[in-house]
């Protein structure tokens, strides 16, 4: 019966009718947990399914109109007269529905429902509407918080890019009337070598090896700083840790070369990398 109808809807090639049956107890996602729902489903091509849905909506609207007017058809009327009245009343409703469907953005070409068509008998209680509104407000709040978090991350990335390039990227998010911040470009490297740090060896080969060791030691420090930066994605963090491990390994290889040369020349070996980077040796 029409009074038991909960919803009529279609999606792609599926047409479904939801009716309220007190003899059946089930849970429906579309009615927010209301019990006693039975869903009848049919499948066909999209154009046929949509036509059936439009006719079903029109028939339901006809039922609502007759219910509201409470008009009774006299028994003395002929079947031809009744058929004529049904035709005259049904045709405007179909055209009205088609016009409404064209204007309503909720009814897409491949889906629609009794609720989205604007039916007066959607039978969704005020309490259910309030629950749905509260649920949507919670989702909206969570999305706004996530959006603010992403905006702050984007600002940090844009500021770092501006420090490297000297120009603020156009993607930097600005509020209404806000001016972009002034950023000075970083000049040179953050790791500079002091001339006094370079060893002075009489042997030019050993001098080159010692200088190479000090340079790579600074590279290891730079790689470590990059690897420990916060707010890095998983792939970038993994890549930088690998680069840091490679730099430490290279530093130890250079020290091994120095020690081999020092032993060859009759000098004592050193342990510079162990002293400079305690606990950082890579097996």
From TrEMBL:
For this protein, the record's Pfam families field holds:
CUPID, FERM_C
Keyword Cytoplasm assigned? yes
Q: Which UniProt keywords apply?
A: Coiled coil, Cytoplasm
Family annotation (InterPro entries)? CUPID (IPR021774), FERM_domain (IPR000299), FERM_PH-like_C (IPR018980), FRMD4A/B (IPR047176), PH-like_dom_sf (IPR011993)
Q: Which residues form the FERM domain?
A: 1-67
Q: Which Gene3D superfamilies match?
A: Pleckstrin-homology domain (PH domain)/Phosphotyrosine-binding domain (PTB) (2.30.29.30)
Task: Quote the protein name from its UniProt record.
Answer: FRM4B protein
- From what organism does this protein derive? Atrichornis clamosus
């Amino acid at each position: 019966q029409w009074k038991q109808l909960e919803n009529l809807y279609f999606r792609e090639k599926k047409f479904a009718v939801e009716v309220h049956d007190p003899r059946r107890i089930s849970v429906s996602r579309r009615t927010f947990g209301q019990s006693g729902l039975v869903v009848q489903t049919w499948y066909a091509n999209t154009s046929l399914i949509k036509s059936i849905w439009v006719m079903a909506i029109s028939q339901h609207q006809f039922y609502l109109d007759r219910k509201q007017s409470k008009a009774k058809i006299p028994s003395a009327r002929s079947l031809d007269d009744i058929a004529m009245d049904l035709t005259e009343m049904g045709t405007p409703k179909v055209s009205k529905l088609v016009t409404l469907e064209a204007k309503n953005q909720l009814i897409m070409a491949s889906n629609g429902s009794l609720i989205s068509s604007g039916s007066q008998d959607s039978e969704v209680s005020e309490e259910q509407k309030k629950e749905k509104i509260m649920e949507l407000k919670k989702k909206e709040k969570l999305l706004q918080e996530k959006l603010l978090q992403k905006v702050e991350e984007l600002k940090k990335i844009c500021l770092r890019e501006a420090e490297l390039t000297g120009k603020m990227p156009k993607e930097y998010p600005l509020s209404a009337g806000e001016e972009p911040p002034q950023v000075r470009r970083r000049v040179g490297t953050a790791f500079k070598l002091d001339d006094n740090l370079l060893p002075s060896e009489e042997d030019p080969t050993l001098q080159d090896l010692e200088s190479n060791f000090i340079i790579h030691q600074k590279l290891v420090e730079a790689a470590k700083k990059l690897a420990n930066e916060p707010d890095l994605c998983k792939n970038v963090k993994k890549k930088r840790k690998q680069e840091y491990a490679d730099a430490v390994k290279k530093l130890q290889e250079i020290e091994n070369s120095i020690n081999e040369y020092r032993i060859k020349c009759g000098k004592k070996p050193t342990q510079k990398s162990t002293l400079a980077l305690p606990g950082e040796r890579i097996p």
